[in-house]
Design goal:
By secondary structure, the chain is α/β, with parallel strands linked by helices. The chain has a domain of 153 residues: Isoleucyl-tRNA Synthetase, Domain 1, CATH 1.10.730. The chain contains 18 helices and 17 strands. It has a six-stranded parallel β-sheet with strand order 3-2-1-12-13-7, sandwiched between helices. The relative contact order is 0.11. The chain binds 5'-O-[(L-methionyl)-sulphamoyl]adenosine. The site of 5'-O-[(L-methionyl)-sulphamoyl]adenosine has 19 residues, from strand 1, helix 1, helix 7 and strand 12.
């Protein structure tokens, strides 16, 4: 049995979860469910990033201790993921004791390997980014991502010899261009950006803070705490028991098959994290995928602008399945995009109410009306079936290659094929003239719909289960999926007894 280890970023708890966090987490959940449908041993990790200056300041503003503040805030993330049906295998918090011990252990190892040294440093620090910026990064003196002035920090810190890894990293990352990669950074345009930045040279990295107590104290100097990004990246291995588990257990899942995130934090994942892993002599993640960033009505989602959308708002309007679907369907996964309520509603009505929902309701209605829920054994229409199979192959490919939005486009094409097939064959006429052909047409549709139910399942876990049950498939999805995903259609169908037609996605008013 093959394994698949995938991760989302661990989100900062200084604010409530918003649909940006939900976007990555839903995408990861879809990919994890897809792997599980193929019986792959999947480990899906998500969690929260709880140390650092930003969290410390937020706690102070609320007049509670940082740990109390994190304990309160993490509940919102847990609740949001539960409501969105995110089936993670583990939720890590960087305040977990095992994680803290792993961070300390790794600092000790780096020190022993002489990859850490102490130096006085003066730099401009953006608290929102939790990183030092160079004067060239600033626009009108402000951090371009947060429109906030960085603070001047001067202190003696420990530095990681990041510069020592420049050549090796360049060589590893650029190997992807010749199709021979140990570490694939995608999309390719982002890989080029990383290589461009790498070619300018790598500075050693400050990896501790002298004046911040809210962090993991360094084992060899308790006056300093670990830099929040060092702390955070380590979660991907501490969650697997890098320090405490026997090697076979850890290597059952490491290296990660996929680290998922947006482009904002690609540098940390594509450069700093692999350098750290090389320092620890650990295998590198197989793939790092940075999806795009979306705006709301053309503007960055921000507290200051007051345009932050919470998962709860989408859940109230669309329910969990459609929220998952819509976030991923709105724009191509690797590109930037825009969201707003009218566009989401329109998409809901077109793709889910009219196309998918209606196709199911219509087909079930006809099977009820003309055959009282039970179609006879019949041959299938091979032209339709072959065309659908081709499309589903493409959908599989998209899902295997971290492209959930591509998969959704492919699935809409299958729905279109089925809808045109109904139009062309006009079953309501066949009902009067050719009952044998009517049975064939409806059984062929039923075969297509059962495929749709399975392929939509990673996106719409609740509704797809309900749809499959209405088609007559009452088993657990994990029992039926492998057969459907791996086997070709049978030419002769023995259709199950179908249920009553229902409205799966009621139309919504555009507001
Ligand atoms: N704590 C760090 C990550 C450490 S990972 C070892 C962090 N946290 S964050 O809360 O700021 O989350 C950033 C991530 O949230 C992005 O990389 C992306 O996955 C997601 N998104 C936040 N806003 C988003 C959009 N507007 N659009 C798309 N993704 C968004 O960085």
């Amino acid at each position: 049995m093959s394994k698949y280890y995938l991760t989302t970023p661990i989100y900062y708890v200084n604010d409530l979860p918003h649909i940006g966090h939900a976007y990555t987490t839903i995408a990861a959940d879809v990919l994890a469910r897809w792997k599980r449908l193929h019986n792959e041993q999947t480990f899906f990790l998500t969690g929260t990033d709880e140390h650092g200056q930003k969290i410390s300041q937020a706690a102070e503003a609320h007049h509670i201790s940082p740990k109390q503040y994190c304990d309160k805030m993490v509940q919102h993330f847990l609740e949001a993921w539960q409501k969105l049906d995110i089936a993670y295998d583990h939720f890590i918090r960087t305040t977990d004791e095992e994680h803290i011990q792993t961070v300390k252990y790794i600092f000790r190892v780096l020190k022993e390997k002489n990859l850490i040294y102490k130096k006085k440093y003066r730099g401009l620090y953006c608290v929102s980014c939790e990183k030092f910026l160079s004067p060239d990064d600033l626009v009108n003196g402000l951090c371009p991502d947060h429109q906030q002035a960085p603070i001047l920090q001067e202190e003696e810190n420990y530095f990681f010899r990041l510069s020592a890894f420049q050549q090796k990293l360049t060589q590893i990352i650029s190997a992807a261009d010749s199709g021979d990669s140990q570490l694939l950074i995608e999309p390719a345009a982002r890989r080029k950006e990383i290589l461009g930045k790498l070619s300018l040279g790598l500075q050693d990295l400050s990896i501790s803070r002298a004046n911040l107590s809210w962090g993991v104290p360094l084992p060899f100097d308790e006056q300093q705490t670990a830099y929040v990004w060092m702390d955070a990246l380590i979660n991907y291995i501490s969650a697997l028991g890098y320090r405490s588990q026997p090697a076979e257990k850890f290597f059952q899942f490491w290296p990660a098959d996929l680290h998922l995130m947006a482009k904002d934090i690609l540098w940390f994942h594509a450069v700093i994290w692999p350098a750290l892993l090389l320092a620890l002599e650990l295998p590198l993640p197989k793939k790092i995928f940075a999806h795009g960033f979306f705006t709301i009505n053309g503007q960055k989602m921000s507290k200051t602008l007051g345009n932050v959308i919470s998962p709860q708002e989408l859940l109230e309007k669309f329910g969990p399945d459609a929220t998952r679907y819509l976030l991923l369907a709105m724009f191509p996964f690797g590109s930037d995009g825009d969201m707003n309520f009218p566009a989401l509603t329109e998409r809901y009505n077109t793709d889910l109410a009219n196309n998918l929902g209606n196709l199911f309701t219509r087909t079930l209605t006809m099977i009820e009306k003309y055959f009282n829920h039970q179609l006879p054994e019949t041959a299938l229409d091979e032209i339709l079936i072959d065309a659908v199979e081709e499309h589903l192959k493409a959908v599989s490919n998209f899902l295997d290659n971290t492209n959930p939005s591509g998969a959704l486009t492919g699935l809409q094409e299958v729905i279109n094929l089925a809808n045109s097939y109904i139009q062309q064959n006009s079953p309501w006429t066949l009902a009067k003239t050719n009952p044998e052909k009517l049975a064939r047409v409806l059984a062929s549709l039923l075969a297509v719909l059962s495929r749709l139910g399975i392929y939509f399942y990673p996106f719409l876990p609740r509704m797809a289960t309900r749809m499959l049950a209405a088609l007559g498939y009452h088993q657990n999805i994990s029992e039926i999926a492998p057969e459907y995903l791996n086997k070709k259609y049978q030419k002769i169908a023995r259709p199950p007894k179908t249920g009553s037609p229902e409205i799966f996605f009621p139309r919504l008013l555009k507001k």
